Amino acid sequence: LRLLARGRSNRQIGEELFISGKTASVHVSNILAKLGAAGRTEAVAIAHRTGLVAPESEGSGGPADTPRRPTSA
């Protein structure tokens, strides 16, 4: 999900995770389904809104912060 948020293509995700682009595509499809998102952009918006991924500072180019989990009240 963090790689998706960074705008990586399925091929790039696959290369970074040492899996095929097709396998990355399947994982991305599963992420979209679990989030109830119609596309990659919506999935990233949901992830940011719910705290699953922290927004990166503009132009950082570095790794995203550790994912945050929602806290219980």
UniProtKB/TrEMBL annotation:
The keyword DNA damage does not apply. GO terms for molecular function: DNA binding. SMART domains: HTH_LUXR (SM00421). Pfam families: GerE. Keywords: DNA-binding, Transcription, Transcription regulation. CDD domains: LuxR_C_like. Signal peptide: none annotated. GO terms for biological process: regulation of DNA-templated transcription. Residues 52-73 are annotated as: Disordered. Residues 1-51 form the HTH luxR-type domain. Transmembrane segments: none annotated. InterPro entries: Sig_transdc_resp-reg_C-effctor, Tscrpt_reg_LuxR_C, WH-like_DNA-bd_sf. It comes from the Bacteria. This is Response regulator transcription factor.
